Amino acid sequence: MTWELTHSSAEEQPEALDTTSSQVYNYIRKDFKRIEVTHDEITTYEWEYLECKIAKEDWDIFEEVMQNKSDIAMIEDALCELSKEI
User: Cβ distance 58 to 27 under 8 Å?
Assistant: First the structure.
């Protein structure tokens, strides 16, 4: 994953996880800062943050792997409980 420094002029802080604004990518964002910017003697504020974009196909694979990992952990816990009863 590559993190890129990004800026946004939106009033509200951008979402940390954005899965809806693009049909191709999901975005993960972190380290939000509200900064002051001056252009032509006019001062405004914008958000500065790190952003990583991940292809939706890769994201789907990641979610599947994480679900499988969660399922395996539940099975392991159940087996441990069963072994205590034996």
Answer: no
pTM: 0.70
How many domains does the chain contain in total? 1
The one-letter amino acid code at 63 reads E
Q: What DSSP line would sit under the chain, residue for residue? A: ---EEEEE--SSPPPSEESSS-SSEEEEEEEEEEEEEEETTEEEEEEEEEEEEEEHHHHHHHHHHHHHHHHHHHHHHHHHHHHHH-
pLDDT at 38: 94
Q: Using one digit for the tens of pLDDT, what is the confidence trace for 23-82?
A: 999 999 999 999 999 999 999 999 999 999 999 998 888 888 777 776 667 776 666 776
- Which residue segment(s) compose the domain that 67 sits in? 4-85
Single-letter amino acid, residue 53: K
